[in-house]
Amino acid sequence: MSTTLPRSHVERDLVLALERESDQNVYACYQCGKCTAACPFSFSPQRVMRYLQLGQVDQALAMETTWVCASCLTCSRVCPKSADPAGVMRALRNVRSGLLAAESVEESDLKDREELTDLAAEHYRRHSHPLRAYFFANIHDISRRGSRLAPVSNWMTKMPGSKLVAHHVLGIHKNRSMPEFVRPSFPEWFERRDPLSEGHRGQVVLFHDTFMDYDAPQIGVAVTELLELAGYRVTLSDTVCCGRPMISKGYMAKAREHARVNVERLHKQVAEGCYIVGCEPSCLLTVREEYPRMLAGSELEKQARAVAERCLLVDEFLTRVRSEGEFDLRLEAVNDKEVLFHGHCQQKAEADSGLSLELLRAAGFEAEMVAAPCCGMAGAFGFEREHYEASRAAFERALGPALDARPDAHLVVMGISCRKQIEHFARRPVRHLVEVLREAARPVTEYAASPTSR
Predict the structure, then answer these.
(1) Is the peptide bond prior to 184 cis by the omega test (within 30 degrees of 0)?
(2) N or C: which end of the chain has fewer CB within 10 A?
(3) How many domains does the chain have?
(4) Structural domain containing residue 422
(5) Distances (CA, A) of 240 to 40, 131, 219, 251
(6) Digit-coded pLDDT (tens) for 55-105
């Protein structure tokens, strides 16, 4: 295999900076092509990695894949060397802010740095939508305000012409429907509920996410009651947004600020050894996998790692307590209908989606894992006007046909993105894992939304 050295200090230093930012070694990739072959969107992460290996940062910046990658992590999941091309490309997209390596650039290389800066800015302008990026990066604050204003906020999104405005102004495809805001929110329900047990097994901290709070509070209700019936005392995490939407939209400084706040607060909550349990893989795994890297070298690094060690997805937590014989809960399937489970991309890449399947089977369901990669939504990707058709194509390649082959099966997921994508293209009801398990444990307490909630 031939090797080409970087043409300048700028490119050499920039590749090193990209490796630091993404916590990756780009030379670990040996061009086997599995990432490109597995990509649900038919992008070419392998070529981006090769350009960076050759020091050709300008070529990597010019690759369409760099700018349209959905960060579904399928590439990292199939890589035999455990490389993460999606993380490298995310760092590369952020190269515009001073070119990361600017401080180490020699005076003789200033022209090269300026050329790369201009090139990065050109691609950024072509592929970015600042207003939309701001909207999705701040979706937690927007959802909180939308919930407080419901149902007026929901009427506004359903007014004639509102989708066309979103399509042309925000860049959100006109065929997509934004999640509806719910009032009262899940935290409001939580504060006035009557716990189902005294919590003799100890305390768990529920990491409640944006969509649980303001769009699908029935998930929060189900997991709270499930954990209480299992013998635990549930408290809510004292947190701000996890920062995942900010990370995906390049707001890295703000994401680090949120990481710092959350680590300081969560560290206090887990000081006595309780676990942090989450239902949304992208949120919980951001705390577990991203925070230690984001805060590396800071005074909070040790606390970030301590918090990460106590973070578990709900299926991981329930599996652990079952294996330890501390599960005061009997699960019994309420019907004999078969269940299809579709794992969230980040869950499959950084956790074990098979644990969800085991719990469904332990409850008596005839459950199977859907043999499909990314559903095609990938966070905000499928909402974006220019990516809508790619999102549809990814769904129709694998997940769509798998669902069509089992028209009578219950559909179960962990991620809100997967849920929205299936509801949109398959037009079938979908439930979160904890909703199904709660129903198997005892009749579900129906979420009593206010008559004015929607």
Answers:
(1) yes
(2) N
(3) 4
(4) 339-441
(5) 32, 22, 19, 15
(6) 888 888 889 999 889 999 999 999 999 999 999 998 888 775 544 444 444
